[in-house]
Write a structure and sequence with these properties.
The structure holds 2 protein chains of 2 kinds. Chain A is mostly helical. Chain A has 4 helices and 2 strands. Chain A has one domain. Chain B has a domain of about 110 residues: Immunoglobulins (Immunoglobulin-like). In chain B, about 30% of the residues lie in helices and about 35% in strands. Chain B is built from 2 helices and 8 strands. In chain B, the strands form 2 sheets. In chain B, strands 1-2-6-4 form a 4-stranded antiparallel sheet, covered by helices on one side. Chain B is elongated, with a radius of gyration of 26 Å. The chains are: A mainly alpha, B alpha+beta. The interface between A and B is medium-sized, with 37 and 33 residues.
Amino acid sequence: MSFGRQVTMRRRILSAAWAFVANFVLWIVIPYYVGTLLVGRVPESALTVPSFVFEFGALFIVLDVGAAFFQGKAISVPFISGAAALSAVFLWLVTNGGSLTVTTAGIDITLGFQLLLYVLVLPSIWAAIRAPLSYLVWRRAAASSAPPNPVPTGSA
Amino acid sequence: MIFVQVKPKTTRGTWALRAVTAAVTIIVILVLGTVAYSAYQDYSAIKSELAGGSSPAVGTETRNGTSEAITLDIPIPNHGLYTLNVTIACTYPTSNVVCTTAHVSVPPGGQGTLLFEINVTNMTQFENSGNLNVNGTVAIVMPPFASVSVQTNFGGFVSQGGGS
């Protein structure tokens, strides 16, 4: 992510539209079809797509579209951090905190991967922290490298 | 009025953030890569051993009067990068069934053997009822990252009419 660069309104709208389409497919369309497939093909399966996936999907769309639209501005920071933190929470919830149990044909299979889950959510947590830090670093660098009296390059 | 756009130079803070990002990425790739590789290698090795590899699993049933002992001798190879701990135990032993708890810890590149025994003290009771419920657990742990625990009925190991 980079702050302070000039982004045209056309580019902002295109980025936001692309973020909307990509997130809609990823969080709404794919989970819906995976859920339909699981119910249709394996009716007795304990595996279903939890309903909170769609609620998270709606939040992801809002945050990612906001981050894309406000790219390069300070206001994009909460959107970027929010989306990253939300993905960490989502991963935690969807894996039940690193402990999954499936019961099929009288056999209970339990998968435990708590430490692996910590490693998996690490990039999301770091991304959530990095966004405000990047902004602070950029602001500090911009303040220190700005000339004391900006010289106009053109006239009004 | 048009102002000049200030492009800040790359500072120590920017480099520090990039370094942490690179470190996080490397850690995640290393951990996921090694765990996935180890899981695949261990799964393939155990599967091939159970299917009749160099030292296939041996199951013997010894009948002595009304009691019967079922012994499973399972080779556990570890072709992965992490230590592999395998435990087989009965979850709820009954008065008619006694199990040993078998545990083996196999270091990377090593080979272990799991010796598990189920003793049925009264086979007549089992043969009359037609089913033997012995809930057991097979736990495979790849410390510190992952574990798989399978709980099922071990009664299927025991055949009516005695063993060979």
